[in-house]
């Protein structure tokens, strides 16, 4: 039996999150008094790297930070989480990425991101780290860094025979087909509706949506639906996965927890349905905790909530 840890490469954003707790999210023109604020490491790329590491993966992060007051904290945090940072580039005279995350009393959030150094992650960087990408079992990408860089990374991974999992967030106005020619695409409901151009409310809507993404090149599609669960399709089989019932505190990192755990199980050669069930539990646990990376679950925590046959 192969006991080598699943090797995951994550190409994406590294941010500092300013998390603000408030009774409700402010409306346009409204000033509200928040309850608390905190600075915690974040960014979809870094969140997913930490999620994968906590789920048991051997993780390498490809990204950029600035040379500001946040940069050392961001780097130290990844190292503490056992994520390899040999391929994280410190960018002179540039601020690190910053996200302002407002979270209300029912766990809903509103997020604004200033990309900072993330916007400088380049195609040249991808080629510089092609060897690291080529040794991975799975590469994870998102859309908080330049899209040309993501497409270049997908192509490098494809040529090396490395499986690619795409979290298409934040969703652009038009997502080109090149982004969907991956092994797994994992949009939430809003993102999926943007990709396929129709509402997704019923099982039949979800089937139509996954079929459309298969036609555009996606080998497997996982459509996450929050508290309703997720639908998974490999092009031949279609399954609905019920959500794990939890008390929601903060949904900020639920999707990233899902993505990181999913990549680890796929790299361990689980089928996409088994991997999605594992990932669904990881996302549910993250939603019960405040903050992005602080709330990401460990492998034992995920397995404790799973049925033995789902492992």
Automatic annotation (TrEMBL):
A GO term from the CC aspect: cytosol
Cofactor note: Requires a divalent cation, most likely magnesium in vivo, as an electrophilic catalyst to aid phosphoryl group transfer. It is the chelate of the metal and the nucleotide that is the actual substrate.
A Gene Ontology molecular function term of the record: metal ion binding
InterPro entries tied to this protein: Carboh/pur_kinase_PfkB_CS, PfkB_dom, Ribo/fructo_kinase, Ribokinase, Ribokinase-like
Functional summary from the UniProt entry: Catalyzes the phosphorylation of ribose at O-5 in a reaction requiring ATP and magnesium. The resulting D-ribose-5-phosphate can then be used either for sythesis of nucleotides, histidine, and tryptophan, or as a component of the pentose phosphate pathway.
Self-association and partners: Homodimer.
Name of the protein in question: Ribokinase
Organism listed in the record: Rubripirellula tenax
Encoding gene per record: rbsK
């Amino acid at each position: 039996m192969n006991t080598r840890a699943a090797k995951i490469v994550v190409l994406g954003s590294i941010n500092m999150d300013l998390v603000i707790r408030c009774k409700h999210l402010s409306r346009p023109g409204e000033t509200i008094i928040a309850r608390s604020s905190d600075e915690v490491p974040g960014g979809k790329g870094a969140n997913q790297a930490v999620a994968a590491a906590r789920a048991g993966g051997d993780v390498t992060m490809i990204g950029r930070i600035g040379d500001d007051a946040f940069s050392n904290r961001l780097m130290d945090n990844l190292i503490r989480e056992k994520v390899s940072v040999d391929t994280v580039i410190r960018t002179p005279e540039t601020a690190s990425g910053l996200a302002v995350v407002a979270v209300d009393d029912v766990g809903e959030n509103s997020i604004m991101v200033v990309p900072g150094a993330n916007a400088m992650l380049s195609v040249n960087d991808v080629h510089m780290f092609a060897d690291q990408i080529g040794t991975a079992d799975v590469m994870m990408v998102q859309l908080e860094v330049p899209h040309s860089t993501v497409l270049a990374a997908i192509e490098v991974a494809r040529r090396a025979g490395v499986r690619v999992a795409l979290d298409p967030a934040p969703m652009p106005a038009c997502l080109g087909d090149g982004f969907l020619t991956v092994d797994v695409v994992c949009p939430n409901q809003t993102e999926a509706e943007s990709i396929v151009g129709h509402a997704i409310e019923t099982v039949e809507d979800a089937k139509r949506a996954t079929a459309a993404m298969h036609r555009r090149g996606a080998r497997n599609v996982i459509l996450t639906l929050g508290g309703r669960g997720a639908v998974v399709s490999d092009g031949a089989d279609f399954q609905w996965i019920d959500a794990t019932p939890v008390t929601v505190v903060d949904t900020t990192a639920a999707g990233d927890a899902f993505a990181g755990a999913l990549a680890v199980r796929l790299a361990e050669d689980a089928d996409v349905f088994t991997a999605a069930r594992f990932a669904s539990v990881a996302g549910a646990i993250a939603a019960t905790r405040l903050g992005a990376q602080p709330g990401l679950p460990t492998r034992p925590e995920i397995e404790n909530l799973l049925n033995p046959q789902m492992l």
